[in-house]
């Protein structure tokens, strides 16, 4: 994870310093970097868990199918949040440092994750 984070940091710094017209602005580069780091972390955790479960349990395909079905049904909102997060990021709807109003909350975007956006309003309260 640390090596992947270093590579992502170098990518972000290169994008910020780049003067090419097709490179990202600094806010978007920072946001993409944070999302890539988060994605890398979750991918490593998921892969590690799958390896551990696969090597310690010998279960039938029917049980695995049932568990997979239950997880898929339960993860629908998670998948929707992730897809919406990617649309927000890649359509440049808003970025870190922008002033936005989301629902009834208004403030400065502090962080954009795959599933959530963190706002800090003008009274100092944080909204996720």
From TrEMBL:
Major localization listed first in the record, in broad terms: membrane
Location relative to the cell: Cell membrane
This protein's name: Mechanosensitive ion channel
Keywords: Cell membrane, Membrane, Transmembrane, Transmembrane helix
Top-level taxonomic group: Bacteria
Coiled-coil annotated residue ranges, if any: none
GO molecular function: mechanosensitive monoatomic ion channel activity
InterPro entries linked to this entry: LSM_dom_sf, MscS_beta-dom_sf, MscS_channel_2nd, YbiO_bact
GO cellular component: plasma membrane
Domain Mechanosensitive ion channel MscS: 78-127
């Amino acid at each position: 994870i640390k090596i992947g984070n270093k590579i992502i940091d170098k990518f972000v710094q290169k994008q910020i310093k780049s003067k090419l017209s097709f490179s990202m602005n600094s806010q978007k580069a920072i946001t993409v970097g944070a999302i890539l780091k988060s994605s890398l972390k979750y991918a490593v955790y998921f892969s590690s868990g799958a390896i551990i479960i696969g090597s310690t349990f010998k279960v039938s395909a029917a049980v695995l199918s049932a568990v997979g079905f239950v997880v898929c049904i339960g993860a629908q909102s998670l998948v929707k949040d992730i897809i919406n997060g990617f649309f927000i990021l890649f359509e440049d709807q808003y970025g870190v440092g922008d002033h936005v109003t989301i629902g009834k909350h208004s403030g400065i975007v502090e962080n954009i994750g795959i599933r959530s956006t963190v706002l800090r309003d003008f009274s100092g309260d944080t909204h996720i």
